[in-house]
Amino acid sequence: AIHSHSTGNDCLNPIKRKLLDFLHYKYRKELYKTANRFYACSQDAGLWMFPENIVTSDKFKVIHNAIDTEKFAYDIQSRQQMRKQLNIEKDNFVIGHVGNFCYPKNYPFILDVFEAVSKRNSNARFLSVGAGPDFDYIQNLVKEKNLQDKVTFLGKRTDVYNVMQAMDVFVFPSLYEGLPVTMIEAQAAGLPCVISDYVSEECIVTSDLISVMKLSDSVEMWAECALQKVKIDRRNTSEEIEKAGYDIKI
User: Fold this and answer.
1) Hey, which residues does 153 pair with through a beta bridge?
2) Are the beta carbons of 165 and 82 closer than 8 angstroms?
3) Distance from C-alpha of 244 to C-alpha of 168, rounded to nearest angstrom
4) What is the rounded distance in angstroms from the CA atom of residue 164 to the CA atom of residue 236?
5) Cα–Cα distance measured from residue 247 to residue 231, given in angstroms and rounded to the nearest whole number
6) pLDDT class for 177, splitting at 50, 70, 90?
7) What region, left, alpha or beta, does residue 230 occupy, with left being phi > 0 and alpha being psi -120 to 50 degrees?
């Protein structure tokens, strides 16, 4: 059996990335000779790894990345406790992101969006959860933009479900994804999200919480969309997440 979990190669260097793409498409056909069952986290991830005739056959199946919906469910008390723990004031507008510091997550663009938001709302703060090879590069970008006092790097966390409670909007402008489990988690937390049109639509479970923006849209347009999300009331979305098949207990 073979499982596909992505829709692209994770490499910041554009020359190396082109080489990896070439090798991927040249040699992936050899994989089909070694398996009789094929799996992926999404339809798009399947099509990236396998030919369409396999994806449309009974040899292929999408396996959802499941989460503990109960842990992520929005809770006002958890939100207040976490914001206090992270020194977030009541009037702070918190943009958040959870993901590795690597090319597909498009972190420089996230910072551009946050910079635009902070110019319009001086109480804006940015929470980042994750680690990865590009961390030093991103940290230097924060310093160049003079945003050190507004950005908090939390590193790897085992309580993402708590940190998401403290956020007001989740920004996810990925360059590609298989099916991002963090998007399922964010929706399970009742968190409004602004995502790129390169993120698989299969991850959209709560359509009222999600705004899809083009990566070609201006930073200002992304910032305006994020700021508008403050008007959305947080709610418990457990039933929708479970119905979509993403609850680990099902």
Assistant:
1) 128
2) yes
3) 24
4) 13
5) 27
6) confident
7) alpha
